[in-house]
Amino acid sequence: MRLLRHIFMLGLLLSSVARAAELNIEITQGVDNPIPIAVVPFSWGGTSALSEDVAGIVSADLQQVGEFRALPPGNMLSMPDEASEVYFRDWRILAQDYLLIGKITHSPGSELVQVQYEFFDVAREQKLVGEVLTGNVNQLRDIAHEISNVVYERVTGTRGAFSTEILYVSAQFISPELTYYRIEKSDYDGHRSQILVESQEPLMSPAWSPDGRQIAYMSFESTLPRIYIQEIATGQRRQITDFPGINSSPVWSPDGTKLAMVLSKDGSPDIYVMDLMSNQLTRLTDHPRAETEPSWTADSRSVLFTSDRTGQPQIYEVSVNGGFPERLTFDCFYCAKGRFLPDGKNLVHVRRDTREDNSYSIAIFNIETQRVITLTDTSLDESPSVAPNGSMIMFATKVNGRGILDAVSIDGRVKFRLPSAQGDVREPSWSPFLN
Amino acid sequence: MGTHSMKLFKTTILALSIMGLAACSSTGDEDMAAAPAADTSGIDATTAAAQRAEAERLAREREAQQRMEAAALNTTVFYFDFDVSEFMASDRDVLAIHGRNLAANSSKRIRLEGHADERGTREYNLALGERRANSIRDYLVVNGASLSQIETVSYGEERPAATGQTEAAYRLNRRVEIK
Prior knowledge:
Chain A is mainly β. Chain A has helices at 2-13, 54-64, 88-93, 140-156; strands at residues 26-29, 35-39, 43-44, 68-70, 98-106, 113-121, 126-135, 165-175, 178-187, 194-199, 203-208, 214-219, 226-231, 237-239, 247-252, 258-263, 270-275, 281-283, 291-296, 302-307, 314-319, 322-327, 334-340, 346-352, 361-366, 372-374, 382-386, 392-399, 402-409, 415-418, 424-430.
């Protein structure tokens, strides 16, 4: 019932699809010993061809996160679509650990389709899950992602993030006088991109509200950097700041009540928090150098930020009530844009180790053990954004002069890439769980 | 681009006429001294010739000064070293002329647009661009401009002047533009 409702809701959001920058996923690095899984093509009882290959989407989902390897359908010995047709021996011979089968049928007396799927543990010859999902025929992609979530969670114990979305900024250069800047939204894998905001002036820092219904961003459309909030479903928006100087980097508190931001109205950029009920501003930092790039701790009680008060950018944490900030990073020439993984101990950030190495990478710093793990090997990496299940980090980088989106698992073992078919893409922001 | 160069052109004309006026008033005494000398030709031809030569020399100097100041006011892009927000010492004289020009034209308004190269994080680069614009703004104010004449805005790395991942491109992108 929950699934049924969820899928209807998603349908409402899939409104106007314009000429957004289409992203195409490429898996660039997987784990050494991925879990073998057979996803049998789902049978279809209808006459006209379906627009989506549900089993193909599930296979792609599971392979993108790197921990699975899907058996090519050409290698399968049989193609069951329900439990009574499953011969486990067929799958043991092929050394498969798991088996997913399903069938798609017309829902009797309606325009809807039913997707029945069953998931098996091959070694134990045991059915782990069996479910029927109902939706519109144009919601098959949502249904496929939902099946991926179930499979992923059953096997890894971690909630799947396949029904999440990303925001990002695209820039399409037309001529020296004209560039189109857009804030776009797509599925986490780059599919179904749509334009939410378009301007001929730069757009920056798209951020999700914790309920996934609104976005905040900075726009230069008035010729000055100002913060706006926009409702995704209706496109309705409002400008929420108009202070002198920089108004930038809006970030919702996880509890949804506040917006952290950067304002330079008092002389230099500092971190402020706006209460969204009262519009009251609280100043969290007061320093003549630059304080920027706020991000919240999970309990909404502290804000991380970047400051160059010691000369070079480093990451600090301050209470939402203000007070003296605590410095978190020391051993780097440039440590910026810090945000915690869901565990609250591992700090994802942009790191340049020394002045000489001249390379900006995505790294994780454990504030308890003080260990640093550098995850990337490109040199212009920035804007890391963590999937809501904490499994992967999406970030922006440059490859052959083009801005692209990359993703890396938090252990660095798995990588996938979302290059844009046109223009530059950057500043990914991974949504909260939307299901 | 068209409107931009148009604006620059207008600024230059305005600046030239101002500099002309300023030069007249400051050297008025010498002009007056030279004028009667030219009228009383024959009394002392040698002195008159010398005075004429001196006046011409001053006029040439004045023209050179005007040309120099016009060129200074035509210089509207100032470049910065990596990770540095103070303008270069070699730009000080040119910026002083911009400052004095604003002081002499209290109705004139300018916009200082600060930029950074693409290295490092976008939001930090926004702060860096603002600091660069502010460093020039403060120097213009020291030279007589009023704060109310100057709007500063930072574009960070969002509006590069040059593309490419080379030091040459980065150098062109670390800049403040007077508009």
